[in-house]
Amino acid sequence: MEDPITTQRLRDAAKAKRGTWVAAGVLTVLTTGLLASVVNWWEQDTIEADLISRTQLALRDNGMAPEGVSFDGREATLYGSLASDQDAIAAVRGVPGVRSVNADGEQSEYHSSAVDTDEPKVSTALGGRVMDVSVLRGRVSQLQAEQPILFSPDSTDVSAEGLRTIDGVAALLKENPQAKAEVAGHSANESGASESNVALAADNRASVVFDLLVERGVPVDQLTAEGYADTQPMETPETSRRVEIIVR
After folding, report:
1. 3-class SS of residue 219
2. Which residue numbers delimit the OmpA-like domain (predicted)?
3. Would the pLDDT of 38 be above 70?
C-alpha cells in the first residue's frame, strides 16, 4: 500500500525536476537565439560592405565616379550624378546581387540569370540611414582593409584604390553627421630622408585626403587631420606610406 506522504513527495520532486528542465530549455533557446542574432548581424554587415566595394568598382570601370555607395540590408543607394538610367543599369548589370536601378523616381529593371528575385534594388536618389558609431567604424575600417589609401615615395598622389575608398568613406560620413573622423597621415622611414621631411610627408598626405573628403561633401567640422610621421610603421615601406580614416 502506498504511503500518501511519500507519493506526494515524489510527485513534488518530479514537478521540480521538470521545472528545472523547462528553465534550462528556455535558457538554451534564449542563448541560441542571441547567438544567431549576432551571427546574422555580422553576416549582413559583411555582405553589405562587400556589395559596396563591388558596386563602386563596377561604376568606376564604366566611367562613372559617384560620391559613394551605401547599402541598407540588400537595398543600395548610389551618390553622384549618372548620365541616364541606362548608364546606371549598364554599370551595375555585372554586379552579382543587383536587380534593379531607380533614378530620379523612374524605375528601370532588368533581369539576369545571375541574380535571384530577392536581390537588392539600387537607387540613385539621395538617402540613407544613421548607424551606430561602432557599426560605422567597422564599415570604414573594412573599406580601408580591402583597398588601403596608399602613396608612392615622395608623393601625395592617392592610389586608384585609395580614391575608391575615399569615395565610399565620404558617403558613409555624410550619412552619419553625428560621427567624427580623424584623417591620419603616415610615412615610411626611408633611407636618407630627414626627420623633418618624413614628418612633412605624413602631414601633407593627411591634408590631401582631408581635402578630398571635403570635396566629396563631408563637412569640415566633421573631420580632423593629423600627421604621425613614421611613428606607426607597417610591415613594408609601401604599406607604411598611407592615410587611415579613423571614426571616433
Report:
1. coil
2. 138-248
3. no
